[in-house]
Design a protein that fits this description.
Blueprint (H helix, E strand, L loop, with lengths): L5 E11 L3 E2 L5 H16 L17 H6 L5 H7 L8 E4 L7 E2 L5 E8 L6 H14 L8 E9 L8 E5 L4 E2 L6 E2 H11 L3 E12 L1 E3 L2 E3 L4 H19 L8 H8 L3 E5 L2 E3 L2 E4 L4 E4 L2 E9 L6 H10 L12 E7 L16
Antiparallel strand pairs: 1-5, 1-6, 1-9, 2-4, 3-5, 6-7, 7-8, 10-17, 10-18, 11-12, 13-17, 14-17, 15-16
Helix pairs in contact: 1-4, 5-8, 6-7, 6-8
Length: 338
């Protein structure tokens, strides 16, 4: 079933031409700058709202940022907005100032039909470099783009050279069936699991954002995101018995919880207002019969969890422990904020 959900992962290398000042959580600057410039370079009729435009069905900006949704999905999920086909993963380092000779790198995940829009992302980030980013609008040069074969890979295959301006289509489109099958083979008899949330994670439970989550709440959020991404951006419906999985998830116990809330704000030029985008960080550990849930947990490590994922929110890493070893807590890494 997971073969119907696919993505590609890329790494962008920015080389500062002058001093660049960014907030501690750089996802806001990267996503915000990209969105502003993308609308300017992609929008034909300069409408303020995409839903008013007669070209919205064929517009790149409308698809990426104003993700269309079918009436059946609207009725089923009752959501006000729907997941976009991309995730920008900013660097998590504390560093805020970058100068010539240094490198500013970030990952880009494109999902389903979003992969076809890679040239738009490359062109827009090049144009953003010419216009400048962050406080003072520091300029940069898009040095290169690499295709990554693995989630935590540091170096990949160059598919775009910023000097020659050539873009190669020789990148891997990942079939998540293979990833989850390997995860299942590598993680037999898992009875303890730790999730380390590295960027603010925004999950709603009973209509409100919360950090008081358990395994069932996390799994519910993952299933919803996986199903929506598959149907919206891959044109496929996944055959998952969600209610059965969620009933079984209730038996999984929380054995450690060091989650804490972190607030941060960004200014939205599109909505012309400051937006609060706080979420929880830290670690939470579970115990129980976890094998059957691991494919979804592994998918979430790639796809992120909750709201605001296009900013890089909801990023977590997995620590698994097979039956019996002594459980040990891991100290939180310092996480950035605006």
């Amino acid at each position: 079933m997971f073969s119907k959900l696919y993505f590609s992962l890329f790494k962008f290398f920015l080389s500062p031409i002058e001093r660049i000042l960014l907030p501690r959580y750089k996802g806001s600057a990267l996503r915000g700058g990209f969105g502003t410039v993308f609308k300017q370079v992609a929008c034909t009729v300069r409408k303020q709202y995409c839903h008013q435009c007669i070209l919205k069905a064929t517009c790149a900006y409308s698809y990426i940022f104003e993700t269309p949704c079918t009436d059946s999905l609207k009725a089923k999920y009752n959501l006000s907005d729907y997941p976009h086909p991309f995730v920008i993963e900013p660097p998590l380092e504390q560093k805020q100032e970058y100068g010539p000779g240094e490198s500013l790198d970030f990952n880009l995940l494109l999902i389903g039909k979003g992969i076809d829009y890679l040239p738009y992302f490359v062109f827009t980030f090049e144009e953003l470099g010419r216009r400048g980013i962050g406080r003072g609008r520091g300029k940069y040069h898009l040095e290169k783009v690499e295709a990554l074969a693995q989630l935590h890979q540091q170096q990949g295959t160059i598919i775009y050279d910023g000097r020659s301006k050539t873009l190669s289509a020789k990148y891997e489109v990942k079939d998540l069936l293979k990833i989850t099958e390997k995860a299942s083979r590598d993680n037999q008899q898992i009875d303890r699991l730790t999730l380390h949330f590295l960027t603010p994670t925004r999950i709603k439970h009973r209509g409100k954002l919360t950090k008081d989550v358990d395994f069932e709440i996390i799994l519910r959020g993952l299933l919803r995101r996986i199903l929506l991404l598959s149907e919206l951006h891959c044109d496929q419906k996944l055959d998952i018995n969600c209610e059965q999985l969620l009933r079984k998830a209730e038996a999984v116990r929380t054995v450690h919880n060091s989650l804490h809330w972190q607030d941060w704000q960004r200014y939205s030029s599109r909505q012309q207002a400051r937006m609060k985008l706080g979420g929880f960080l830290g670690q939470i550990a579970f115990q129980g019969d976890l094998d059957k849930f691991m494919p979804f947990i592994r998918l979430g490590e790639y796809l992120h969890l909750g709201k605001g994922t296009s900013f890089g929110l909801g990023k977590y890493r997995i620590i698994t422990q097979s039956a019996k070893p002594q459980f040990a807590c891991h100290k939180d890494t310092k996480t950035q904020r605006d």
